[in-house]
Structure formats: structure tokens, C-alpha cells
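Contributing: when you submit paired examples, paste them exactly as shown. First protein:
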Amino acid sequence: MGFSYLFIVSGLSKFELREKAICVMTAVINWDKIKSYKWEGKQGSILTIWLKKRFLGFPNRKILLIPASKKAVVEGILSEHLF
């Protein structure tokens, strides 16, 4: 697997899918730290990610808004890394 998908999702504001992690603004979420995810919202464009462990009492989930045009790409990459 290469970095070709980085160019596909590069239009996502402050959101990058990397070989080993999701980068969201200043946070890095490693694939091995993700427990599960779910698409929510009327358009199904809200991605909720649950993490395996809580860190110092912080919530164990991240909520991301994904443009509808990028949802299929993001779903494919997530399912490849997590299941």
C-alpha cells in the first residue's frame, strides 16, 4: 500500500489519512488505537471514531465531518485498516 490515497483526500480541510494514522488538525489517531467507527447524521457525513483507551479522562471518541464526495474513499481506507 502506498500514499496514493493521500492525494485523493487532500481536499479535506485539516484532515489527512496517512499510512499509520488519521491526522485531524493537531491530533494524530493511530490505526491501532481505533476501536470502531460509525457514520452518522442526516447525510451520513459525520464520522464518529471510538478509541480503545481513554487518555487522562478525555473522551474516547472523535467526531469528524467528512464531505459527501469523500465518504466512499474514507470508508474504503478505514475498512482496510480496521477490519
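Second protein:
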Amino acid sequence: MNSLDREKPHRVPTRPGVRVTVRFTVPEGGTRDVVGYVLAADDRAMTVLDRRGAEHTIALAAVVAGHQVPVSRGRDPLRMPADLLDAMAERTGVHGRRFVIRLFDLLDGLEPPPSVVVPAVARTDGEWVTADPTEPLEQVAWWATRSGARSMQVRTDDPAAIEALLARGFSEHT
């Protein structure tokens, strides 16, 4: 690396909606890392929302490294105990057969939206989101990833909804 490379600011993606990891210098000395979704950016700073809901405003001149990262893969949703899924469904107010998917698998290859819409019938619970199949599930998934969710369960007994879920890659959790 020559001296000119060290003087150029690092190019971290700043498009709203993109999930990034950013390392930046802090005034106290040293560096800090943040992983989250870009909420806003301009020529001088970017704001990143982490999975705990904290917003971090980072001066672009302080960025040491950064790059876009995919949605977290998470654990195998078929290994989740059924009673825990049932309790989450009860809290959300949805009923029916259990269908699950990793959010990574549902969203892989899709362009992240610059902002998310809060769904009417969905609830995050740790690394899980529980939703009604009438919700636009990709929108629910993008919303849930911003809270740290990694898997989704959907409940239904409707044959047409079940067929649609299976076609999208959901698995029935028995």
C-alpha cells in the first residue's frame, strides 16, 4: 500500500437499507465496530441502525474499513422446540400449522429496501419473527432483520397459503 492509498477514505456502502459492517476510529483512541443497516448518509456521515435498535452516526472520514454483509444466516429453524414456536404464535395471535424458514434463505438475492414498513400482524421474539401469511412476507422479513431476527414462522391451515409457502422455500415444522 502506498501513501496515497492510506489518504483515501475507505468506501463503505452508504445506500439506505444495505446491511454493513463498519470499523471506525473513536475520539478516545482506537477503533469500534458496528454491524447494522444504513438508515441515511451524506457526504460527511452515515447513520447505522444496529440489531438492538441503537443508531450510530459515523463520520465517513473516521471509517477505517467496511463492507456490505448479507442477512445473518442463523440456526436451523427446524431444530427450534415446537412448544417455543407455539408460545410465540400465541403471543402474536396467529394459529395453524407451523411453517419456518431462515430469513437469509427468504431474502437471498433480493435488493434491500431503503426503509421498512411495520407489519400489522407480526412480532419479533429474539431471533424469530412470527407472521400471518397474509402479510407481504419479504417486507416482514426485512423489517425483522433490523431487530436481529434470523428465522420466521408463519401459521396457517389454508391449503392455498400452504402451497405458496412451500413454493417459497418454507418447511413445515412438525
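If you have annotations for the second protein, write them as plain sentences, like these:
Residues 82-92 form the longest helix (11 residues).
The CA atoms of residues 101 and 170 lie 5 Å apart.
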